[in-house]
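anyone seen this seq b4? input:
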Amino acid sequence: MIRTGTGHATCHHGEILQGVFLDSDGRRCAGLVTLPMAGPGSRAEFVRRPGTPPGAITAVPAGRTKAVRAAALAVAHCARRSAGPACGGELRLAGDVPVGLGMGSSTSDVIAAVRAVADSYGLRLAPESVARLAVRAELACDPLMWDGRPVLFAQREGRVLEALGPALPPLVVVGCALGGGAPVDTLALPGPEPDEDDVRAFERLRTLLRRAVATADARLLGEVATASARRGQRRLRHPEFEELITLSRRVGAVGVQIAHSGAVAGVLFDPAAPGLRRRVRGCLRALDAHGIPATRTFTTFTTTTTSKELPHGPAHRRGDRPAGPDTARRPARLPAL
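predicted toks r here
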């Protein structure tokens, strides 16, 4: 009987920190730390077809070129590992990660596909192996293969620059969409080369984030995320950004975070702060008053790598993500709270 392999990957809610850092050899390296988010994700099934060429992989829905490329790379890798036959097959994908908001939709597809292929060979690949295959498939990827563990990740090289700890400090995140939720074409944005001052600034933020994780300090994490988001505005230039900063201070949040390659953003709260629900409700009212659509309110926990949605925060609508090619999907329209 031909085994059907299955795989799953979650998404993220943009970045906490993104910039240029020094690796262990002192070399400059682009890196990021994402804000994990459970709920939306990609699911994949892979059925091998013995006797077909390894590259003969069909996808349902058609057009998921990055996931297909990742599946072909995974077939070659897993066939070598298992001494099994390298052959083509059918890759089926389903998911509800909103597209175009900077939440890792393509990486979620890619990781789910790689895991499904590995499962069809009876293998479970280490995150390092999945990362190498993912970055080969899409040139730059998010660290979703670490399943929520906070890492400073070199997205263009598929390697971890630093493991920050088992989990981020606990947070309550009020999500929103800047720019009306329109997708961001990062390739069209100006990309000035970072100078020594930039690298030093990012390394300082890295040190502060390391301390925030070690001490479970939500307020310090919020300071890092806000500083990173502000530096990101040199390229993104969201017109609502300063309003979001002012709003977050007024409602007693610890800071804000944004997707550096999309429109999703979050107002961050310390769950231990007094009057939390009052603060969150005030944030939702303020977002509405400023015309910034709220999307999802969720919590993160130090005891698990998953996130839990607050009772008053609706999930993204099922079916937000159309089943079309990578380059032709319409942007997801997220429901307002």
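DSSP finds seven helices and eleven strands in the chain. The CA atoms of residues 11 and 41 lie 6 Å apart. kinda curious what u guys think
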